[in-house]
Every structure is written in structure tokens, then in C-alpha cells.
């Protein structure tokens, strides 16, 4: 297998060394007998598949970052260990994708240089391990976090047009080593098979935009109003969640609704708390070590007021934004206590924002008394009832009778035979398609989707026409004046045509150019073979 023009022996040696894990010189007499076998081709195909597999996982890893705080909370609930596992995920994924990418690039360069693809056994083992690790990651995703598959489908509405361009570009570059292989191999059947597969893949890619849909492919004048922001437990990236400081930071981010969770103490005082246990967001283990594992509702209000509800925020740093807090904010965080619902309602009234909450735990035997206590505080607070958004389904009819001005928000889609029309729904962003959002908007139903933290996701929902989103990152979404991208259909059509035509011309050029190179090498190779044969005959004589 002769080296093509422009591929020096030094370059070939430098490529062979890391790929084969041994110093094989590029001189022909040292490489005699080294050829790419069928087994080597199979390993190259396996390498290519592992690269694609890892690349898909990288995409999933970037998508699930929007929801990764939920995973951190889940791990803490199970193991009482707090760590930002997103860093572990990104580092591990970066190592896997870098390793498979480097090997693939080396293999493609070796093919272009006419060198044997002798993958070392160490790389073979590592590639198998890489495939197993990624497969385990996908399996764990399916078992413990299956809703992220729907998140990936939503993400394609934001990335579909750009993924198409990227894949077309990658497949176009692949034409060079493919053409080199086709002109070198003597197996006609293999040539025909590879060319048919490649052509079928490229035709499918060229026509892929016919199946790509995105709500952001629209005219500028069709863009719906920017969704309102709902602060998820306030502004949890800027202050300890479910505290008055968090509420004030949310107000600074121009949120229209403060979303929180309410529990009722043992002596009947409603207070703000998300977890059933106090261990994650207070110092209960230091103050009441013997009672730390008890349900939050087992503590009376006097006990709860002794707990520090802010220092954990600085110690555990649930979000990277904690590092950038000012000295004043850090001090203020350490002074936070668990707020009562009465205090939160007063702060919401003064700030002129609405408050939306769940009442937990729903399966508690004393839940009706929880509802009564919560309603009593709302009615006594003096807050305009239209600023209160009621989420709990339990005893909803009782709430409607006692406080008819409270806005009822439902955590489900509307039914076909709905007795009373829904005016507000609150759902995970994975549960509603763009078409459903548009239909609800036309029917004057307010749709709030949660939890939306990343600008790409906010952009898709903005283009879809959602009314509001619940977010941890109100300070980020507040600054967005426009979706990340917005393309008129005519512009996208032009991009599609230009990309496909350019790709086709580059592929055609690759095959024509490498064919000419192969023809130039053949006479030289034939003359060399004749000369070597004569020299061998003379030596034998």
C-alpha cells in the first residue's frame, strides 16, 4: 500500500504510533506484510459506532443539564450527600468523547495516508469499556429518569436545523477517507456496498429538513409575547430557596409569580418548605440531632424558628452562581430563617406579585386541617385573592367555596367533557407539544411550564406561545429580549439548499481528486514492482 503524494514517512509514523501503540516506521521494508485485514476493518467500524454512540450521549448530557438540579436533590435524598453531579457528568463525557474522537481522526488520517489500521489491543479494550459505560448511562436514564427522553425530543425543536447542518458537514468530510478506501481496495462487492450505504445516508440527510419542525421557524411579526417568569422557590440561584431573601431576589428579576411549597407545623402554622425532611435546607442536624429525620410537619413553629435556613446555601453551593454573590448577599443569606406563609403573603402583597404554591405532603392523614389552616392564613392576610394561585388538588371544591377569588391552577391537561373550563394549567415542559400550547393559547387558557432554566428551552417555549415558565434562572431569562434564533421559512429553505449543494460539490470533488491521485500512483507502483522483481531475480542468480 503506497503512500500518496504529500504524506511523508514522518507523518505516517506519527499517526501509526498512537493508534497502534508501537513505533512502526513508515519505510516500506519495515512495513512489509502490514496490511489492513477484515478484522481491522471491523474494529474501525466498531470505533466509528462507539464515536457516534458517545456523541449521542454528549447531546443528551447537554440537554439534561436543564433538569440536573433535580438529580442532585434526588441523590441527596437517597445518600445525604450533596455534590454538583453535573460536573462529574460533563468531565466523564468529555473524556469519553475526546478519546473516541482522537482515535477516529487518527484512523481516518491513516486511511488517507495509505497506512495499515492496526488498532492496538489496549485501545480495543478501552473502546469496549467506553461503549459499556455509555450503554450503562443510557440504561440508568431509562430506569430512573425516563422523562428526559421527552426532553430530548423537545430539544430537537431548538437544535434540529443546526444538527442537520453539522451532520451533513461531518458526512461530507467522511467522503475523503471513503474515496481513498474505495480506490485502494480490490473488492468490488465491498466498494459497491459502501458507496450504496453512503449515498443512501446522504440522500436521507439532504431530504431531512422535510421532517424537521421547529416553532422558531416563523416570521418576526408572528413571534408571541415573551413568557412571564415564575420564580421556582424564589430565585434559588441567587438566594436560599423558599426564603424571604429568595422572594426579594425574584422580585428584582421581574418575576410575576413566586412559586413555593407550603407545609403546616405541628401547632398549625403554615410555613415554606419543599422537602419532607429539613436536612437539606436547614441546620436541623446540629440543632435537633435526634429529630433530624422526622417529617417537617412534626416540628412546632417555635422549633422551626430556631433553624438556620441560609448557611447551607453558602456551604453546599447548589448552583455555580453562589460563588459570585457579594459580601452583603452572603451575610444576608446567613440570617435567613424559615418563613411562615403569613410572612410570604405579606412580602408578595407589598411587592405586588402573585404567589403560587403546593401544599405538602398530600398523603398526610391530617391534610384537610392543613387546607383549613392555609386558607385561614390567606383570608386573614389581606392579600388580594386574585394574587393567590392554588395548586393542590385535595379539597379543591372546599377552597372554591371558602375563597372564590383564589385562582385555581390545575396540574393536568383539560378533559373532553370538562364540567368547568380550565383557565390555568401548570405542567412539566415535557408534557405539552407546541401544537397543544398554541391551541390552549387560542382558547385563552394560561399555560405555565416548569422547570425551564436554559435559554434554548426558553426560546422554544417562547416561540410556541407559552404564557409563563417556572425557572431557577430568572436572572438569566430576564435578560433575554429575543429567542436565541428565529428564522423565516424562506431563509431556512435557502440555507437548506445552499448546504446540500455545497456538500454535494465537495463530495464530488473528493472522489474526482482522489481518483486522479490513485491513477498517478499506479504507474509508479508498477515500475517499482518490476524493479524489485528484477533485483530479486539477480540476487537469486
Automatic annotation (TrEMBL):
- One Pfam family from the UniProt entry? GDPD
Spans traversing the lipid bilayer:
41-65, 85-109, 121-141, 161-183, 192-212, 493-514
Q: Where in the cell is it found?
A: Membrane
Molecular-function GO terms, alphabetical: glycerophosphodiester phosphodiesterase activity
Recorded GO CC terms:
plasma membrane
The GP-PDE domain extends over 227-481
Which keywords does the record carry? Glycoprotein, Hydrolase, Membrane, Transmembrane, Transmembrane helix
Report how it sits in the membrane. Multi-pass membrane protein
Does Transmembrane helix count among this protein's keywords?
Answer: yes
Keyword Methyltransferase appears in the UniProt entry: no
> Cross-referenced PANTHER family, in alphabetical order?
GLYCEROPHOSPHOINOSITOL INOSITOLPHOSPHODIESTERASE GDPD2 (PTHR23344:SF1), GLYCEROPHOSPHORYL DIESTER PHOSPHODIESTERASE (PTHR23344)
In its UniProt entry, what is this protein called? Answer: GDPD2 inositolphosphodiesterase
Species per Swiss-Prot/TrEMBL record: Ptilonorhynchus violaceus
Q: Which gene encodes it?
A: Gdpd2
Amino acid at each position: 500500500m503506497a503512500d500518496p503524494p504529500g504524506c511523508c514517512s514522518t507523518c505516517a509514523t506519527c499517526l501509526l504510533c498512537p493508534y497502534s501503540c508501537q513505533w512502526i516506521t513508515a519505510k516500506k521494508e519495515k512495513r512489509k506484510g502490514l496490511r489492513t485485514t477484515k478484522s481491522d476493518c471491523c474494529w474501525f467500524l466498531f470505533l466509528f459506532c462507539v464515536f457516534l454512540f458517545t456523541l449521542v450521549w454528549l447531546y443528551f448530557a447537554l440537554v439534561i443539564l436543564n433538569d440536573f438540579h433535580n438529580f442532585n436533590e434526588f441523590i441527596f435524598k437517597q445518600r445525604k450527600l450533596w455534590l454538583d453531579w453535573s460536573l462529574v457528568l460533563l468531565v466523564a463525557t468529555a473524556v469519553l468523547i475526546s478519546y473516541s474522537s482522537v482515535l477516529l481522526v487518527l484512523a481516518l488520517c491513516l486511511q488517507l495516508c495509505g497506512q495499515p489500521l492496526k488498532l492496538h489491543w489496549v485501545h480495543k479494550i478501552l473502546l469496549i469499556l467506553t461503549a459499556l459505560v455509555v450503554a450503562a448511562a443510557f440504561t440508568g436514564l431509562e430506569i430512573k429518569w425516563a422523562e428526559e427522553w421527552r426532553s430530548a425530543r423537545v430539544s430537537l425543536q431548538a437544535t434540529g436545523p443546526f444538527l442537520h447542518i453539522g451532520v451533513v458537514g461531518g458526512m461530507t468530510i467522511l467522503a475523503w477517507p471513503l474515496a481513498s478506501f474505495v480506490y485502494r481496495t480490490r473488492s468490488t462487492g465491498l466498494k459497491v456496498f459502501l458507496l450504496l450505504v453512503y449515498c443512501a445516508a446522504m440522500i436521507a440527510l439532504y431530504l431531512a429538513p422535510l421532517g424537521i419542525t421547529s416553532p422558531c421557524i416563523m416570521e418576526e411579526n408572528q413571534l408571541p409575547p415573551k413568557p412571564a417568569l415564575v420564580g421556582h422557590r424564589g430565585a434559588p440561584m441567587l438566594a436560599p430557596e423558599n426564603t424571604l431573601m429568595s422572594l426579594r431576589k425574584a422580585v428584582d428579576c421581574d418575576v410575576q409569580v413566586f412559586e413555593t411549597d407550603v407545609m403546616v407545623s405541628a401547632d398549625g402554622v403554615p410555613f415554606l418548605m419543599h422537602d419532607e425532611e429539613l436536612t437539606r435546607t436547614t441546620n436541623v442536624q446540629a440543632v435537633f440531632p435526634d429529630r433530624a429525620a422526622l417529617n417537617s410537619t412534626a416540628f412546632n413553629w417555635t422549633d422551626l424558628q430556631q433553624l438556620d435556613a441560609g448557611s447551607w446555601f453558602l456551604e453546599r453551593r447548589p448552583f455555580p452562581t453562589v460563588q459570585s454573590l457579594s459580601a452583603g448577599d452572603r451575610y444576608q443569606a446567613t440570617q435567613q430563617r424559615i418563613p411562615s406563609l403569613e410572612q410570604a403573603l405579606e412580602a408578595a402583597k407589598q411587592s405586588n406579585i402573585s404567589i403560587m404554591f403546593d401544599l405538602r405532603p398530600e398523603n398526610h392523614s391530617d391534610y384537610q386541617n392543613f387546607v383549613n389552616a392555609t386558607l385561614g392564613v390567606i383570608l386573614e392576610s389581606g392579600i388580594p385573592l386574585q394574587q393567590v394561585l392554588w395548586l393542590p388538588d385535595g379539597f379543591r371544591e372546599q377552597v372554591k367555596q371558602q375563597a372564590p377569588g383564589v385562582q385555581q391552577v390545575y396540574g393536568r391537561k383539560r378533559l373532553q367533557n370538562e364540567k368547568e373550563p380550565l383557565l390555568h394549567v401548570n405542567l412539566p415542559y415535557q408534557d405539552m407539544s407546541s401544537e397543544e400550547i398554541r391551541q390552549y393559547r387560542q382558547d385563552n387558557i394560561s399555560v405555565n411550564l416548569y422547570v425551564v432554566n436554559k435559554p434554548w428551552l426558553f426560546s422554544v417555549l417562547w416561540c410556541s406561545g407559552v404564557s409563563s415558565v417556572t425557572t431557577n434562572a430568572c436572572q438569566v431569562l430576564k435578560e433575554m429580549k429575543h429567542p436565541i434564533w428565529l428564522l423565516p421559512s424562506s431563509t431556512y429553505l435557502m440555507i437548506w439548499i445552499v448546504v446540500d449543494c455545497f456538500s454535494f460539490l465537495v463530495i464530488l470533488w473528493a472522489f474526482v481528486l482522489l481518483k486522479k491521485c490513485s491513477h498517478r500512483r499506479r504507474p509508479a507502483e508498477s515500475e517499482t514492482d518490476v524493479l524489485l522483481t528484477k533485483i530479486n531475480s539477480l540476487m537469486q542468480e
